[in-house]
Amino acid sequence: MQPIEGAALRRVCAHFATGVTVITTGTPGSSAGTTVNSFTSVSLEPPLVLFCLHQHSRLRSPIQQSGGFVVNFLTRQQESLAWAFAGRESAKVEDVPHHRTADGLPVLSGALAYLSCRLVEEYDGGDHTIVLGEVVGLGAAGQDEDPLIFYRGSIRALDGELAS
């Protein structure tokens, strides 16, 4: 069996829509964030989530130092925010509207929902690190908003309304 090429794997996985999330972490004055498309919930008891970070991600050190992170689920109106945190020269958390959890972790204002997490473990995932966290706090917007999604390799809004 021949090894799978990374580009081919990415093309196939692009057919699965996922919500756009920005992971934020750090303390006031040294916070950081990055857009990820690999978030998933893995357990309800205990409440565990995971996502992948590139081995050279700017978030690895701040997550380890703070011992936690926030998963911010973005709305379709926050596309520019998703792009701002997607590049190598990322937006600074201090420059965008946000508030802090009781633990001091940054939560992006206007997000559809957020999960505040305690870092549980990091696993070697090849060219990425798999970050596992336990959800210790959460919140959701009170208004009905459509999510921002990744589909076919780009950030998109849903074309139609969500079914109730």
Description:
Strand 11 and strand 12 (154-157) form a beta hairpin. The termini are far apart. The model has no long low-confidence stretch (mean pLDDT 84). This protein is mainly beta and 164 residues long. The chain has a seven-stranded antiparallel β-sheet. A three-stranded antiparallel β-sheet has the order 1-11-12. Strands 7-8 form a two-stranded antiparallel ribbon. It contains three helices and twelve strands, in the order H-E-E-E-E-E-H-E-H-E-E-E-E-E-E. The protein has helices at 6-13, 60-66, 79-84, and strands at 18-19, 21-25, 32-36, 40-44, 47-54, 68-73, 98-100, 106-108, 113-125, 128-140, 148-151, 154-157.
Number of helices: 3
Query: How helix-rich are the residues, as a percent range?
Result: 10-25%
The gross shape turns out to be globular
Total strands: 12
Low-pLDDT residue intervals, each spanning 5 or more residues: none
Q: Within the largest sheet, what's the order of strands?
A: 3-2-6-9-10-5-4
Amino- and carboxy-terminal Cα gap: 45 Å
